[in-house]
């Protein structure tokens, strides 16, 4: 699988893909990641990539020309329909996009080629979203000054879903969000740290009891930190009530 990142700050990506799972997946030849300077697809002496917004207003807008040419050069087409037909995805990173979810990450992991276009916060000519990008994606409800940090997030979330990337010791199946539930809490030695005890059931080695505790703790944590996720869980009345009761206890 290949990722091409189109950006006005290619140096931003210096070593971010040289660590952990992404590094290992690249070393194993499972994925390639390359950042490209958008200015490469300009034709004027000053390599201008932005211009003033029609209708007036503050800030500059990224011009469509260099972005369309970049995608044409990197992916061999410059319309969303042909790109999708070829199994490629062109993702415009913008705060106006649809939310990145584990589901979307899994979808992108099924593509052979993903081109990521980093917008600037002032904006990108809308014709990119209308007819070039197959997807317009945001990583959350807050404002970044550019799409670059979001591109790093997308690559990481997608790479770990590429078959073979996680290795044999871990699996993406029993993780946070794959079930719409947060992960259960983890503890390691020592069993008492600064007066805080590890829950007794985890020290005992009774596997069924441990599994029961983890399920309840995950539900409790989801209710406390992500009531939006909790509301969408398919739970028995009993499990729902248990989580709600336990929360009011501490
Ligand atoms: Cl993808 N870009 C920018 N500029 N801000 C964001 C974002 C993306 N996702 C959340 N905030």
Number of alpha- plus pi-helical segments: 10
Class per helix and strand makeup: alpha/beta
Question: Strand arrangement, largest sheet?
Answer: 2-1-6-5-7
SSE sequence, one letter per element: EHEEEHHEHEHEHEEHHHH
Outline the structure in words.
The chain has ten helices and nine strands. It has helices spanning 20-27, 64-75, 80-85, 102-109, 126-132, 148-159, 200-204, 207-225, 227-231, 237-249, and strands at 2-7, 32-37, 50-51, 61-62, 88-99, 113-118, 135-138, 192-193, 196-197. By secondary structure, it is an alpha/beta fold. The model has no long low-confidence stretch (mean pLDDT 95). Residues 93-95, 97, 119, 121, 138-140, 142-144, 146-147, 150 line the site of 6-chloroguanine. 6-chloroguanine binds at residues 93-95, 97, 119, 121, 138-140, 142-144, 146-147, 150.
